[in-house]
Structure formats: C-alpha cells, structure tokens
TrEMBL record:
Keywords: Pyrimidine biosynthesis, Transferase. It comes from the Bacteria. Belongs to the aspartate/ornithine carbamoyltransferase superfamily. ATCase family. The gene is pyrB. SUPFAM superfamilies: Aspartate/ornithine carbamoyltransferase (SSF53671). This is Aspartate carbamoyltransferase. It is an enzyme of class 2 (transferase). Its EC number is 2.1.3.2. Pfam families: OTCace, OTCace_N. Heterododecamer (2C3:3R2) of six catalytic PyrB chains organized as two trimers (C3), and six regulatory PyrI chains organized as three dimers (R2). L-aspartate binds at residues 83, 165, 226. Residues 7-144 form the Aspartate/ornithine carbamoyltransferase carbamoyl-P binding domain.
C-alpha cells in the first residue's frame, strides 16, 4: 500500500516507482476536480529563503484551491534569519503555527535538517543544487501527459547539469522507467560523477555530449536548463559558459529532430532558449509550469491525509 500521510518530501530518491505513479494518478484526479474543501482548516507555512515564482505560487494556489490557508515569507530578509536565527530554531517556531512546511533554502541538506527538527511534514522546494522533488513529480506528469508514457523514453538534458537540481532529481526518477539519457553540457557543467555512478548502478544507459549534433534525432524529450549564475563562486567562470547554448526553432530544424519531440524547461529561462519555440508543438514548458498546481494539490492532499 502506498502511504504518504505525514510523510516528508525531501528527495526523489526516497520514492519507488509505485509511489511516483500514485502521485501522478492523483494529480490527474486533481486536474479534473473543481476547488474543494479537502484541506479546510489546514495551514501551510511557505518558507522561501531563495527567490521563487512558480514553485511558491503554485504551492500557495494549490493549498488555497483545496480550502486551506497560507502563511510565510518569500525572502529571508523579512524573517528572523536576518537577525541571526538558525534554521532549526526557525522551524521549531514555525511548526507551532501550521500543519505542513514548504521550504526552499540555499544550503544543500537544509530540507533534511528541517525534517529532522520538525514534528510535522516538511516538503523540500529546493535545497541549493541538491534536490527539487516536487518539480520532478510535475516534470514526470508533463512527460506522461505529452508523450503518453514514461516507459523507455530517450531523454536529452541540456545546459547546466552540475548545479541544476531539477536535472539531478528527474534523472533519478526516470531511472525507474527504463529511460536512456544523454547529458549535454560544456565540460565544466557536466553532471557530477556521483550522479552518473548512481544511474549506472541502476543500469541506466548514460551518454555525455557537448552538442546536440549527431544525437538530436534519437531524443523523445529535451529537458533544457538555464546556467545557474547564482551557484557560481567565481563570476569569471560564469562568463565562460554564459550563452553557450541557445535552443531555437531554427537550431532544432538544423540538427534534425523527431516530429513528436517535446521540449521541457523548469523555468525561468534567460538566454538558453529562444521564444521562437513558444508557438511550436515541441514546446510544453508553459503547460509544465501550470501542471505544478494539480501535482502539488495531490502532494498536499496525500501528505495531510485528505486522500487515502
């Protein structure tokens, strides 16, 4: 039996295939459901120590559409962290005001620390360059909806694979479904070796490339990411890779692609993807962002025990 009630959502590695599919099925139900009172009386604490648009707003929208309410902050400067309060103390205080905490923080491991301290469920909305599990659920949901399956796909991850936490989480999740993966990046932004090792241990076919040329016709999905400027310690190193890739309609036509290719992007985009793609059938990234609501409604309802 799949159990999510009062469960922390910290890393996608904590979920098996059955559990992933359970949330996707539940998200489909949520998408067909009008606003309900499933979470009436429940309070979500939205604690964002880093900037966010899609994740924060979709969590808040999801909670309110299920009849619950939201407290919290969208930047650390307005919290007691600005006065030197530790994260663990902040969590101990906030849990007295709510039923569930959604946390985004710039430090890797912060979500696990919060979960260890809290007596209520904690959902990781991104901890540094580490994990972003709820983004992975909505990425899987988008791929499943647009490709009709998650099984046996060939996925190309393009861009910043070193710091891109969405890539780290999604690649692991897709290993449950027999995916073949191409990791396309400059050498300085390759997927860290420990992630590659984990995927290979799970019998995933992995390939590392610096260009889409020669491989683009094999791909069912391209997952494009921006260069994570905020993760670079040295601005000079960022400038070396800035704008190194620019995905556009003309570029895809030039290298050659499958007619049913789908392009995903966790957003925001900067200069790595041209808006000429927006009107094509390949582009599903705005649908992907909207899928954050049914998916996060499913997660909140399951974790708070509103749905068995």
């Amino acid at each position: 039996m799949v159990r999510f009630k009062q469960r922390d959502i910290i890393s996608i590695r904590h979920f098996n295939k059955e559990e992933l599919l359970y949330i996707l099925d539940l998200a489909k139900q949520m998408e067909q459901m009008d606003n309900t009172e499933l979470l009436k009386g429940k309070v979500l604490a939205s604690l964002f120590f880093e900037p966010s648009t899609r994740t924060r707003l979709s969590f808040e929208s999801s909670m309110k559409r299920l009849g619950g309410s939201v407290i919290g902050f969208a930047e650390s400067g307005v919290s007691s962290a600005a006065k030197g309060e530790s994260l663990s103390d902040s969590i101990k205080i906030v849990e007295g005001y709510c039923d569930i905490i959604v946390l985004r923080h710039y430090l890797e491991g912060s979500a696990q620390l919060a979960a260890d301290v809290a007596t209520i469920p904690v959902i990781n909305a991104g901890d540094g360059a580490n994990q972003h599990p709820t983004q992975t659920f909505l990425d899987l949901y988008t791929i499943q909806k647009t490709k009709g399956t998650l099984e046996g796909l060939t996925i190309g991850f393009l861009g910043d694979l070193k710091y891109g936490r969405t890539v780290h989480s999604l690649a692991y999740a897709l290993s449950h479904f027999g995916a073949e993966m191409y990791f396309i990046s400059p050498p300085s932004l390759q997927l860290p070796n420990d992630f590659i090792d984990v995927l290979k241990d799970r019998k995933v076919k992995c390939h590392e490339n610096e260009s889409l040329r020669g491989i683009s016709r094999r791909l069912d999905v391209i997952y494009c990411t921006r260069i994570q400027k905020e993760r670079f310690a040295d601005p000079v190193e960022f400038e070396k890779v800035r704008g190194i890739y620019r995905l556009s309609r003309a570029m895809l036509e030039e290298v050659g692609i499958k007619n049913d290719l789908k392009v995903l992007h966790p957003l925001p985009r900067v200069d790595e993807m041209d808006d000429s793609l927006d009107a094509t059938d390949f582009a599903v990234y705005f649908h992907q962002a909207r899928n954050g609501v049914p998916v996060r409604k499913a997660i909140l309802a399951a974790v708070l025990g509103a749905i068995a």
